[in-house]
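step 3/5: co-fold with flavin-adenine dinucleotide
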Amino acid sequence: GDSGTAAKNVAVVGAGLAGSLLACYLARRGYTVTMYERRPDPRTGKVERGRSINLALSERGLDALRRIDLDRSVMADALPMRGRMIHPVEGEPGFQPYSSDGERAINSISRGALNNALLEAATALPNVTAHFEHRLVGLDPKTGAMTFAVDGREETAQADVVIGTDGFSSAVRGQLLAHTGLTESLDFLEHGYKELTIPARDGEFAMDPGALHIWPRGASMMIALPNPDRSFTCTLFWPTGGTNAFASLSSPAAIEKHFAQVYPDVIELAPDLVDDYLHNPVGVLGTVRCSPWHAYGRVGLLGDAAHAIVPFYGQGANCAFEDVVELDRILDETGDDWDRALPEFEARRRDNTEAIAQMALENFVEMRDKVASPVFQAQKKVEHALERALPGRYVSRYELVSFSTTPYAQVQRRVRRQQRLLAAAAGAAVLAVGALAAFAFRKGTGA
Ligand code: FAD
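step 4/5: write tokens
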């Protein structure tokens, strides 16, 4: 392409989490940034029901915010969660800290508040403009000519560089699919999700706000994160295919009966359960893979548009923010040469986004199943003891993913190495015990 170092105008399509942060970063580099967003301005309009209300922000996301001095304002309303609170069907909930010192926390923040703060920060810059209710419907990747559906009409615009930050069902990706050699795969999860609310009780949190609450039930799972207004937002994960578990509860009585059996402690905490259940939509979840993420040195994909993942590691937004930091770094290194920067961005990010995609799928099994088992709980204790005994040498996967900026692919490799070591150590221990037992046996029998 002819964009090269001459690129001055960048269109950011999708003013969600990644797009708003990207606009801040690019404007600081001196670009004229125009954002196009399908929805109305979230700072004035009302928010859609059914997208996650809150999310867990951890070190990678914080690092991206810190670099442009947005961390303090964003974190003002954040609620630190230092571990998991596991709710069994019967008996008291049990707490499992995330880190060996019990201190490190992931942060529950409002998606809306975060998006608004980033939009505010972007549009406060003189070289950023945002157009809402502009849905991208056409793109010529060779020229950067874009078409938007605006209030029943079509409008056109043009930019030197177009970045698609338009999420899971990216229209920019769709245009690359139609006009270039891009290929994609969408792996939908069998599970969908529905949000439910646990309101404040007498003005206070109805459960411990310092934890991410989990109801692991094997085939299904529910989680809850605290909100600044002292409510919790619960997300219920359940299969949607085949028998469609969600639709199987169609009457208030059936909903109440199911929750009384499977999530008994939630019944009295969630007075609007039936209403929430009947009216909140079921969201789909899945993994997006596509290649290449760019065309003609002019069009690129970033965030969920390039590599959406399932939410079970709480990393989608964190990973998208990390994308922004990496692209900014590459623009530094290439002197803003987009012809080189876009392929380099994909080269550096692809293994990492694939690694977190896999780890997020694996963590679903851990959350919905393993956390409830005594064996798993014992393993976590051993792991934390190892971390304390070998500081910096043995670090759990959760810590590396959530509390460091170690590239995801490196985390995956390191954890595999640690697991082999651990297995070898456990094997050696078993052999030693076996040898001792055999020795004792021979002594005992006189053999
Ligand atoms: P999005 O946030 O989806 O933004 C895309 C934007 O593009 C939207 O504003 C959309 O309106 C706009 N758009 C779409 N199409 C067009 C178009 N044609 N024209 C113009 N604009 C368009 N991540 C975490 O880090 N931690 C968590 O705890 C966490 N929990 C999650 C829980 C659930 C249930 C789900 C579903 C996701 C969760 N995620 C979490 C993932 C996180 O939400 C995403 O990774 C993140 O929102 C990606 O940001 P994005 O900007 O790439 O996409």
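step 5/5: annotate
The pocket of flavin-adenine dinucleotide is lined by residues 13-19, 36-39, 52, 55-56, 135-136, 165-167, 171, 193, 235, 283, 303-305, 311, 314-318, 320 (CB under 6 Å).
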